[in-house]
Specification:
By secondary structure, this protein is an alpha+beta fold. The protein is 44% helix and 13% strand. The chain contains eight helices and five strands. The protein has a five-stranded antiparallel beta sheet with strand order 1-2-3-5-4, with helices on one face. A hairpin with a 5-residue loop joins β1 and β2. The longest helix is centred in the last third of the chain and has 21 residues. The chain starts with 25 loop residues before the first helix and ends in a 7-residue tail after the last helix.
């Protein structure tokens, strides 16, 4: 007598390949979404529903390749990827705001000398409380200590010119200057950088590369590439192989 086999619970096509025994990978996205929504409820429970939806979309669409993370820049400040922030508040000496305004007007806000600090993205000076106080904010690459060292070694005269109008400024060469800056600095509560992995040196190199590529294309345009191409390519490679003073 032939034996009967129970096939009631066997899925169709079961003999075609192995049956998945692990968790459904689609559940990972679902559990991550639930986690995001739980965290949003924790930090924004009193926000309108539309704001929660917008916040959820922003978190879910974050591009991990940008590698932007808010972490400490060292002694003070926040850092995202390679880019850090410094925000400091200080009291000005009497007449300090007017003196600084004259300097800013004289230079038209152009501090070319500051480019010797190859980690410096920008600097901002804002007067408030009837010109009795100043906000100094700057964006830079790397860690806090190295940045202050760059100020002290590369543009010491400019630093003292600008900050001697601040009450208690010890001078950029004074050993206590880091303590002075740290006392007046306040960490940013939120810190976003659109391109956190791109440094000032990266930007300058890319600009130089774009210029060299455009020059090469102009040189070979409308010519016999067999003759002009190698020469133009060599000129391009020669330009890119020569480091500039800011590439450090």
């Amino acid at each position: 007598m032939a034996q009967k086999h129970d096939t009631k619970d066997k899925p169709e096509g079961a003999n075609a390949g192995p049956v998945q025994t692990g968790p459904d990978p689609r559940l990972e996205d679902e559990s991550r979404l639930a986690e995001i929504r739980r965290k949003i409820e924790e930090v924004a429970s009193d926000a309108p529903q539309l704001a929660k939806i917008a916040l959820e979309a922003m978190v879910r669409r974050h591009n991990p390749e940008l590698k932007g993370t808010s972490q400490t820049a060292g002694r003070a400040g926040r850092q995202s990827g390679n880019v850090s922030e410094l925000t400091a508040f200080a009291t000005l000496k009497p007449g300090g705001a007017e003196r600084l305004r004259r300097i800013f007007n004289l230079t038209n806000g152009n501090f070319d000398g500051a480019q010797r600090v190859s980690t410096l993205h920008d600097m901002r000076f804002v007067f408030f409380d009837n010109d009795t106080k100043i906000l100094f904010a700057t964006t830079y690459d790397g860690d806090w200590d190295a940045y202050i060292n760059d100020f002290a070694t590369k543009i010491p005269e400019l630093m003292d010119l600008l900050f001697q109008s601040v009450e208690g400024w010890p001078g950029i060469a004074d050993p206590s200057v880091k303590d002075f800056i740290a006392r007046h600095q306040i960490d940013a509560a939120g810190w976003f950088v659109a391109n956190p992995q791109v440094t000032v040196v990266d930007v300058r190199r890319l600009q130089r590369m774009e210029k060299a590529v455009n020059e090469m294309m102009d040189e070979v345009a409308g010519t016999d590439l067999d003759n002009s191409g190698p020469k133009a390519l060599k000129a391009f490679l020669d330009k890119m192989s020569q480091p500039e003073g800011v590439d450090y």
